[in-house]
Amino acid sequence: MNALSALLNQLAPWVPEHEARLIWFHLLRKQTPTLKTFADLALLTEEPSLAVKEDAVRIAQARASGTPLQHLLGSQFFLNHDYFVDASTLIPRPETEILATRIIEYAKKRFPKKNLRFAELGLGTGVLSIELLAACPGATGVASELNYSAIRLAEKNLNAIIGRSWSSRFQIELSENPLQGFEALLSRGPYDLVFSNPPYVSPTDEIEDQVLRHEPEAALFPQNRDPNFFYVNFLEHARELLVPNGAAFFEVPHERANDLLRQFKAAGFRSSELIPDLTGRPRVIFSPC
Q: Mean pLDDT, the chain, as a whole number?
């Protein structure tokens, strides 16, 4: 049995192999600077310290009890970067990479030479705004966020990925009213681009018990329990938020995507379209003016 197999077997009672690899990679790259990729795990010759082994078992046992692995490791890779994560925000998910990718593609095509101004409702970990700032050096923007702890986490990610001078390009607005939507962003508008992955879960939607137990309720459910609140709120303020040739991107629940598309078109965004995720389900609404 090689060294990697032995390590994986140590965690086999609690977690599947792919999660065991993540745990060991996360812990061992602190001990072994030459460890850069998952493939490097197979080349390990140095025995993990006792402290590292104990940490691996502790994390695996906590994971077996239902705690998200991302919370235990404190990080999640999203699109092009590693992000710090904790229980104050939603864990960045692969399906949201579709939203981030389309935002960046639009920004680069629509503003190849002109700097753009953008706004995001619900900053969370910061993945959407940070990926755009990283991909488009001329972009500047503002984001709103209800949760002070989430703001601190996003600032940590901004420091790590954009650099400590990020505040010259990006501002964060603490929204103190949980029933407020895009009103928090009006004073700095209008914008070339507006986007959001807002709380959109309905109390009647099927949702994993682990998500309900470990991720913040305010990031899942609108506080007034209307799952379409933030989409309707945007439509009410769209003409103030967007410049005449601006555009908006939203992640949407696939169950209500077609209904939301009809609402956007009825509100005047007649060129709106749905963009599918990798499973083929509608995931993003793109609404150009």
A: 91
Please tell me the distance from the alpha carbon of residue 92 to that of residue 22, in angstroms, as a whole number.
Answer: 16
Phi, psi angles (nearest 5°) of residue 247: -150, 160
Contact 219, 90 (CB under 8 A): yes
**Alpha-carbon distances, residue 172 vs 37, 68, 204, 231 (angstroms):** 34, 27, 32, 21
The model's pTM is 0.91
Dihedral of the CA atoms 119, 124, 129, 130 (nearest 10)? 160
Q: Where are the alpha helices (DSSP H) in 65-206?
A: 69-73, 96-110, 127-135, 148-161
Rounded distance between C-alpha atoms, residue 249 and residue 120, angstroms = 10
Pull the structure tokens for residue 164. Answer: 């400590």
- Structural domains in the chain, CATH included, are 3-65 (no CATH), 86-288 (3.40.50.150)
